[in-house]
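Final report, results section. Input specification for complex C-07:
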Amino acid sequence: MTSPDMVICRCEEVGLGKLLQTAAAHGCSARELKLRTRAGMGTCGGRSCRSLILAMLEESASQAPGHDMPLGCQPPVRPVSFSMLGGTE
Amino acid sequence: MTDVLIVGAGPAGLSAALACREQGLSVRVVDEFYRPGGRLLGQLHEEPDGQWWNGLEEAAKLHDKALQAGVDIRCGVSVYNVAKADGNWQAFTTEGVCEVPALLLATGASETAVPVPGWTLPGVMSIGAAQVMTNVQRVRPGERGVVIGINVLSVAIARELQLAGIHVDRMVLPALSPVTSSAGHPEKVMESMLRVAHLAPSPLIRLGSRLVQSLGLQKRGIRFYPSGGIRMWGIPFQLRTAALEIVGTGQVEGVRIARISPEGVPVPGSEKIIPADFVCIAGGLSPLAELAAVAGCAFAYLPSLGGHVPLHNERMQTSLPGLYVAGNITGIESAKVAIAQGTVAGLSIAADLGKLREPEPLRHAMERVCLVRQQAAIQFHPDIALGRERLHQMYEQAQAM
Ligand SMILES: Cc1cc2nc3c(=O)[nH]c(=O)nc-3n(C[C@H](O)[C@H](O)[C@H](O)COP(=O)(O)OP(=O)(O)OC[C@H]3O[C@@H](n4cnc5c(N)ncnc54)[C@H](O)[C@@H]3O)c2cc1C
Ligand code: FES
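Structure output:
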């Protein structure tokens, strides 16, 4: 019933099937799953898909989220131009 | 020089700004939206006493007061990073770096998506987006909508859409999948709706009591749930129907639905496609705490508060000196609670900067948060008070270490 093509990470276009397969093949933590598939590394910084990836791991691999903020948050938390980060035009 | 920078001009941020100004601090508020008010904008619901809560008006009132008090409010400005520097906090904004002794994060909540095959089609939006289009921008999201996901937020907003004359064809559950977990499980959805309904006087209580009346006990109830759903304000709530796919070429044209068992498994042969030109997906809310994470705050995972929240105490201090939180970043609650928390945060900051003229108002403000919480017309989770208690314990334990 679950569709493997269903997009979970919209920014990086990662489907449910790929995430489930990768999680099963490597027994991944959320962070490792992100590094292997790029899910959560897109322009939104994981704001849209973070909770979905966590729900998926909880459901499929019985990994309940811990107290630490999962999948880290890296600055910049909003898309910004290089010049804003201090570069020159 | 600015004493306090507040990220977020929602109810929490604006009320905190006012409290700071009243103690003589200089305050700047930044918000990335083009107008202040946060998620107050667009809220419209009936209070238990029959009065209407109009978020647009409440936002305008807070904004006016803040302006009159001399708060420097800047909209259309995002904060993309925060860091500690020489005892101060630096906020990196799209207008440059702002360095302050006290930084308050009042960034609110973000919506959780509900992935259903086809959810990337144009015409699919989060329920909050439909609320903003309808009540803030006054644009019709479409002619005939289906809401996928039944929870406190989607029920409240479906009602708002209907009040605006927008046709909501029905509310259904998302198909069971590894990402939707309990949102696709009729028994669990029913259980959580009933638990919240008992606590919230209005408008959910009416839905709740109708569910209870017509269904008796919940386990049995969901088994005999009418296939057409139960109507509330004329909108069918179909807890025994799931959206399997959103269909259309180039844009939403319909939703493929099926009857489901009490556990959420589709009944073979019951599939059909219903027409729709827009679909709202509603997976609930979680605290938007990315800046607190970047700053290096300690966190706690408490599902009753909506997920991961920065550890903080009743004075809204985080684990990091000079960094404060207020509003939905601390847990998902109604706007009135956010306003009350903002006042606490503002006074707390004034106290820490040695500007609080007398201690009484801070104590009163803290008591007020609990009172407002008890009387809230909308409760997002039945165990909020317990979650808060647990959080404060964790904070104390962490500080003692
Ligand atoms: C779609 C939706 C509908 C809701 N409906 C209701 C309802 O009907 N009734 C109810 O009681 N509650 C409702 N809520 C809950 C709502 O969150 C609270 O009522 C209240 O608005 C929370 O106030 P706040 O000040 O904490 O955050 P918000 O009101 O969310 O304000 C936060 C502000 O911070 C800004 N911001 C966030 N991050 C940044 C950044 N990095 N840089 C700059 N600015 C930033 C945002 O633009 C936003 O304006 C709803 C929430 C959502 C998301
Ligand atoms: S949706 Fe995954 S990073 Fe944006």
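Chain A touches chain B through 36 residues (CB under 8 Å). The radius of gyration of chain A is 14 Å. This concludes the modelling results for the funded period.
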